[in-house]
Task: inverse folding
């Protein structure tokens, strides 16, 4: 089968298409013929030797196969959860080695859910790592009806699912992006938009119960003045420094970093929302398997709208 191997950390030139044997599945795994793979910033970060390179034995792999997000068809099953012929999607073995840049992927069945019948494999592959992150962040923070939720980078992969999920939870949603993506963010259901390039956050909003940082750098600290006493902020990009933590504590704000993890239970929850028409993937661009380097360049641009997907 064709698989895209990272020969060593570095540029996209280190991604090489290779022929390898179809993987053998273990107990409780299924073999999936991959139809679509979604690409995330962590793919590029890991390719460069960062990201999850240090987790789950990733760096111990001699020829690392990147990627975690897939949608496809079960061709072999050693699990009671899925049968041959089932269409499934999920984020495989994150954080760890997903081996998803391949024509066939061996996946723990309990990282997957049945793909909703009415959506394409591209849309399903998209709604994995990014959508799981938004779901796990809101669940962890206990976001509820009536909360005022601020989402930094509401137009990106995670952000575009986060807006829809926060609205589903009954929150009042304020999303940030550049002016170019204003209409997109509002079309997802956001109640308000803030153009981070031309508006000051502190002037544009206040009384936030929960801030979701999908940007990193200064977004946690910038959120401080707009958060309510007793509010919460979760970042998914980088550690919160001791200094910032002290500031948060002094203002009675809870701050944390969250790392997404594979979960079939959460995938089933997302699948149901998708089937009910309450959550949609916006796939802004697709690439062929041979165009993986271009897909990495796009995700590294930091300008991706919604999700990008590689179609096999
Ligand atoms: N900890 C975890 O488990 C976890 C999980 C998923 C993702 N992440 C990390 O979270 C980050 C976001 O992931 P993603 O998939 O959503 O990335 P993405 O799709 O590449 O995000 C791109 C979007 O970010 C917006 N953006 C860029 N700078 C911004 C800023 N300063 N303020 C507001 N919006 C801004 C861009 O909009 P404009 O072009 O309009 O600026 C663009 O639409 C990445 O660093 C990723 O590695 C972490």
Result:
């Amino acid at each position: 089968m064709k698989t895209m191997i990272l020969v060593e950390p570095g540029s996209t030139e280190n991604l090489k298409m290779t022929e390898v044997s179809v993987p053998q599945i273990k107990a409780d795994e299924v073999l999936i013929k991959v139809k679509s793979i979604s690409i995330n910033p962590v793919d590029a970060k890991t390719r460069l030797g960062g990201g999850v390179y240090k987790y789950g034995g990733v760096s111990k792999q001699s020829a690392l196969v990147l990627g975690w997000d897939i949608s496809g068809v079960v061709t072999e099953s050693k699990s009671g959860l899925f049968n041959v012929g089932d269409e499934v999607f999920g984020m495989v073995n994150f954080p760890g080695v997903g081996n998803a840049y391949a024509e066939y992927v061996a996946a723990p069945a309990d990282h997957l859910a049945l793909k909703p019948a009415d959506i394409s494999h591209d849309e399903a592959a998209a709604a994995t790592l990014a959508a799981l992150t938004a779901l796990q962040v809101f669940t962890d923070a206990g976001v509820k009806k009536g909360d005022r939720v601020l989402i930094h980078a509401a137009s990106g992969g995670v952000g575009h699912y986060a807006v829809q999920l926060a609205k589903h939870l009954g929150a009042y949603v304020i999303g940030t992006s550049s002016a170019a993506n204003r209409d997109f963010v509002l079309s997802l259901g956001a109640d308000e938009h803030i153009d981070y390039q031309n508006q000051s956050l502190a002037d544009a909003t206040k009384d936030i119960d929960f801030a979701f940082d999908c940007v990193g750098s200064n977004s946690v600290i910038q959120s401080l003045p707009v958060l309510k006493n007793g509010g919460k902020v979760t970042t998914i990009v980088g550690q919160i420094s001791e200094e910032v933590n002290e500031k948060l504590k002094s203002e009675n704000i809870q701050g944390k970093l969250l790392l997404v993890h594979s979960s079939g239970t959460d995938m089933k929850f997302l699948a149901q929302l998708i089937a009910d028409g309450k959550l949609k993937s916006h796939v802004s661009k697709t690439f062929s398997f041979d165009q993986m380097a271009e897909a990495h360049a796009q995700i590294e641009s930091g300008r991706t709208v919604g999700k990008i997907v590689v179609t096999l």
